[in-house]
Amino acid sequence: MDTSSVSLVRLLPGMAGMALVGSSVTVSGTLVDAPLFTAQAVRYVAATAILLVIARFAGARLVWPRGREWLWLTGLAATGLVLFNVAVVRGVAHAEPAVIAVAVACVPLVLGVVGPLLERRGPSRQVLLAAPVVMAGAVLVEGTGRTDAAGVAWAALVLGCEAGFTLLAVPVLGRHSPWGVSVHATWLGGLMLALLGAAAEGPTAVRELSASQWVAAGYLALLVTAVAFVLWYSTVRAVGAGHAGLLTGVAPLAAAAVGAAAGSGMPRPSVWLGIAVVVVGLGIGLRPRGTGPGRPTEAEAAPTGVRSG
User: How far apart are CA 107 and CA 172, in angstroms?
Assistant: First the structure.
């Protein structure tokens, strides 16, 4: 079988997932004035229900967590879903949104180093060379922005939480599959956010959501959570966290494209340059490696506990 075609098939779900995440930037603006915890709780509870229905029709087998798996999944939900949203909202109070976006752009390097270690193999030299290029391109797309010390701290927390969303899933993807990890992450995150919302915003805060905010929450629940989570974790399991991490560079490209389509105007020259740099970085990190007869690709050599359920 042709190595390049196999690689492309494995990468496409993650690319589609990151494109959906990028599209959420414009939609999320509708929720700026909504009760933070309550709106996100609605999103993740709805996403859980959607995932359960789709998983049933897809014939996916869901199993209950056991033992140490609770720690990985709870940590994933607490950092990648709950704390991430808090850090973004609090961060933009001290820094321009571009600063937070730049923090997220650093994720490929973190995943490129830590991800393979969790998968019990060494970091890929190819990924380590490509990650800074993807990061540089994302920074050009998003800009740098102004911030203060608190903004830098929140941005660093955003980086850690975004990396945790992928890294904490690696040890449980084998048994739970992308479907199981997505379901458990969303219901745990939804429960945490609902409790925070009831305590901080009151049990009736859900009534404050406008019709447009309900629509936005529904879009985020269906496409940016239920669909994008499964697509993303499918690619993480197939190619490893290191290679998948490079695909986060697709998100700012999608955000720029959706913003232009929504009427914000054509991207600036620096954005076009950033898009070109991201594409070059993806080409460096994801190009088929020279494989001799019988020699597996790096993804095929990944531990079976990571790649198969």
Answer: 20
